[in-house]
Design brief:
alpha/beta; Rossmann fold
Length: about 300
């Protein structure tokens, strides 16, 4: 076999970058065990923001994909609202009957951008989907439900501006971490036309973290100040028998958002007769599951194929 040094270097850099990312979270796990706090009560704060930003941007640019061969066009910086962060990239399939998928990034409702989801968006587009990969307004300046409202606004924008270029009878959502909560809340409370949701690493029951410095600024108040408000923002409390088909995936070693969040929602959904599938990612935590689980990506896309194309 002919040696390709450029390919070998690319593979090595990809593996190294993902390992570096997970090492940051492994160190945080050590701190977690020392303090006996879940990371939603003790967020990663011991690393310089510039270092975290550089490493994360490098990692997310070269990690897991699951691409096919279909061609697509990309329109960058599509603005769907008047606020600065109401923006996204639109991937247009060549088939005008292709379904639409909206992708929503994580970042504790207060950081990151839609660029984190570029590999996912490209993978979906290469499988024949239209994809609107969006950013949204941040907490604490904009509290819940502003982020869910932004997702609704993005969908309304596409319906108004691109209704002749795609099949808007078939819309699905894909979110990771805080993006998983945003997508599920929209599908369960706002939009009965959503056909399917893929959600990874999501916090589905806020009440598990009574002192969370991440959820509190998102909600605008603490759990004990308004427990009902926290319950109402938790996807597990919004499940109903007419919910869309769901595919959830979660790292078994996730100590930022415990794996039990997925299994708990799964059990509740099955009691209600909801069409739900789950996939537990062995060995990996929150970051590794997102950036490096090609199997989760593959299973999510195959799930959408079944629900939107078959």
């Amino acid at each position: 076999m002919e040696i390709n040094p450029i390919l070998d270097l690319t593979i090595a850099l990809s593996s190294l970058s993902c390992i570096l990312k997970e090492l940051l979270f492994l160190q945080t796990k050590i701190n977690l065990k020392k303090s006996r706090l879940n990371l939603y009560n003790n967020p990663l704060s011991s690393y310089p923001m510039s270092l975290k930003t550089i490493l994360t941007s490098l990692i997310l640019s070269i990690c897991a994909t699951y691409k096919s061969t279909l061609k697509f066009d990309v329109i960058k910086k599509v603005r769907y609202g008047e606020y600065e962060r109401q923006i996204g990239d639109l991937y247009l399939a060549k088939d005008q009957n292709a379904p639409l998928i909206i992708t929503v990034h994580g970042g504790s409702w207060s950081s990151r951008s839609h660029h984190d989801m570029n590999n996912l968006a490209e993978s979906l587009a290469s499988h024949g989907y239209n994809v609107f990969n969006i950013s949204y307004r941040f907490a604490p300046q904009f509290n819940y439900p502003a982020q869910i409202d932004d997702l609704a606004k993005a969908i309304d924008f596409i319906k108004a501006s691109y209704k002749e270029k795609m099949n808007l009878e078939k819309i699905a959502l894909w979110g990771y971490s805080s993006g998983a909560q945003i997508t599920l809340m929209h599908a369960l409370k706002k939009d009965s036309q959503i056909k399917a949701v893929v959600a990874g690493g999501g916090p589905y029951d806020f009440t598990w973290w009574p002192d969370s410095p991440l959820i509190t600024p998102y909600m605008g108040y603490g759990r004990d100040e308004n427990i009902q408000g926290w319950l109402d923002a938790s996807p597990i409390t919004q499940l109903h028998k007419d919910a869309p088909s769901l595919f959830l995936y979660h790292g078994k070693e996730d100590e930022l958002v415990g794996h039990e969040q997925m299994t708990s929602l799964d059990a509740r959904a099955k009691l209600l007769g909801i069409d739900i599938e789950t996939y537990s990612v062995d060995f990996w935590g929150h970051a590794f599951t997102f950036v490096f689980s090609k199997e989760a990506l593959k299973r999510g896309i195959l799930f959408l194929n079944k629900k939107l194309k078959d």
